[in-house]
Design brief:
61% of the residues lie in helices and 0% in strands. With 160 residues, the protein is mainly α.
């Protein structure tokens, strides 16, 4: 019992000084303890890379839509320019042999068939088909709206 220090006659502070500090635990490793966590991390990284690649491919595939919408804003309601923008957009999205020969009602039918919700009929259809051959100052808001809808929502078929 000689290992114990003498505590008789010591006050509380002096007794606390006699205490030895608690040893610190070893540092926690940042390496996962099981292989399952490593595989899960790799799987998450692969999923993120795949999602990023898909997003970038989708964005690149739809660059022509963004360019057409920007050009449509610059057209300032000129029906001839709007008709040309719509034709160029269709030529990018579809095979040339399917788009280039279309005129009049065939062109309007093509636009309506390739976009759900498009309504190139009546006054809008007439304005679109006659715009390149007339000297109109401005178009109707419906024509601009329908063209904007078609550019955003059309569904391209394979260009094969």
């Amino acid at each position: 019992m000689t290992d114990l220090p003498q505590t008789e006659g010591l006050n509380l502070v002096e007794m606390l000084d006699l205490l030895e500090p608690i040893p610190e635990p070893p540092p926690i490793s940042m390496i996962p303890a099981t292989k399952g966590w490593i595989w899960l991390t790799l799987l998450i990284l692969l999923a993120f890379a795949w999602a990023l690649r898909s997003y970038l491919r989708h964005r690149q595939a739809n660059a022509y839509r963004r360019a057409a919408l920007a050009e449509l804003d610059k057209a300032r309601g000129d029906p001839a320019r709007i008709a040309a923008i719509l034709r160029r957009t269709a030529l990018v999205a579809f095979a040339r042999r399917d788009v280039a020969p279309l005129v009049g009602q065939d062109w309007l039918r093509f636009l309506n068939e390739t976009c759900p919700g498009a309504a190139f009929t009546g006054e809008v259809g007439v304005a679109l088909t006659e715009a390149p051959y007339r000297d109109n100052g401005s178009s109707s808001p419906d024509l601009v709206h329908q063209c904007r809808l078609w550019i955003r929502k059309h569904r391209p078929r394979s260009k094969a």
